[in-house]
Design brief:
Length: about 280
């Protein structure tokens, strides 16, 4: 994988792409969740890089894509993703988005219909105002105020144990969080939750008719994911779309790090269908 950088004009986005992309292979694009970076998908890159063109980024203000002003929206992220894919000639990609990354994938599909061959949502949730109660959206920007009440070491431990159920998954979470200061982590989390709240009331997602991306959708949820209302939202998403939920055994919110074998097997099947 080659490390590269894209200048947005407001900051640089660092990403990694296959050394020698092959036009005969499908593109897999991995989008990490809030505060996570490219290391979240190490288990997928290692598995797929021999049979697919792979690309993973550190989202704006995450990982090596810093410094980056916290003044961007989900729509900005989706457009910059499109710019990166254009720069790499990544046509017809399968977008694999974990948590916040799943939101970015959905906005990308709305802005650029037909460009993605599919979306794999890993412990994410649907965009669309009709999925959410007003009080749920109103509370999101204030969730991270609680973070500041805890010592940084306590917050790191709680976050790693809350997002991952296995020692391997928790180790990855700890390593990613260690690159932030407490203040930086709290500011980034606050901005991320605000984006999620705003993304569901912006015009692009406001329609009550919006239920799912136009691209084929695959739902993956860790059976031990107790993050917010993720389980409820995915169950409703499944009901409205008719898409089954793939429950990942022994996995929490970062299902792809807790049980990479199970998640990789699902992605393999999705790729085979689209081949």
């Amino acid at each position: 994988m080659r490390q590269k950088s894209f200048d947005t004009g407001r900051g640089n986005i660092v990403y990694w792409v296959s050394d020698e992309p092959d036009v005969a292979r499908p593109w897999l694009v991995f989008l990490p969740g809030l505060t996570a970076d490219h290391r979240l998908f190490e288990g997928q890159i290692e598995h797929f890089e021999s049979c697919a063109n792979c690309l993973v980024w550190d989202a704006p203000a995450h990982g090596l894509s810093r410094p980056f002003p916290l003044d961007f929206s989900l729509e900005d992220m989706a457009r910059w993703l499109g710019d990166v894919l254009d720069a790499e000639g990544a046509a017809d990609p399968l977008l694999v988005g974990q948590s916040l990354g799943g939101y970015v994938a959905q906005v990308f599909d709305v802005l650029f219909p037909g460009r993605a061959r599919g979306i794999v949502s890993v412990d994410s949730a649907p965009l669309g105002r009709s999925y959410y109660k007003s009080w749920e959206l109103a509370c999101l920007p204030f969730v991270t105020r609680m973070f500041r009440l805890y010592p940084w070491e306590t917050l790191q431990k709680a976050s790693s144990e809350g997002n991952a159920a296995t020692e391997a998954g928790r180790a990855i979470m700890v390593a990613m969080m260690a690159d932030y200061s407490k203040d930086e982590y709290c500011l980034l989390s606050t901005h991320g939750f605000a984006m999620l709240a705003e993304g569901n009331v912006q015009e692009v997602m406001r329609s009550d008719d919006y239920a799912a991306p136009a691209a084929p959708l695959t739902l993956i949820v860790g059976e031990r994911d107790n993050t917010g209302f993720i389980r409820k939202y995915n169950e409703l998403w499944s009901q409205r779309t008719g898409q089954p939920i793939h429950w990942i055994e022994g996995a929490a919110h970062n299902a792809n790090t807790d049980n990479p074998q199970a998640v990789n097997a699902i992605i393999e099947k999705v790729l085979a269908v689209g081949a």
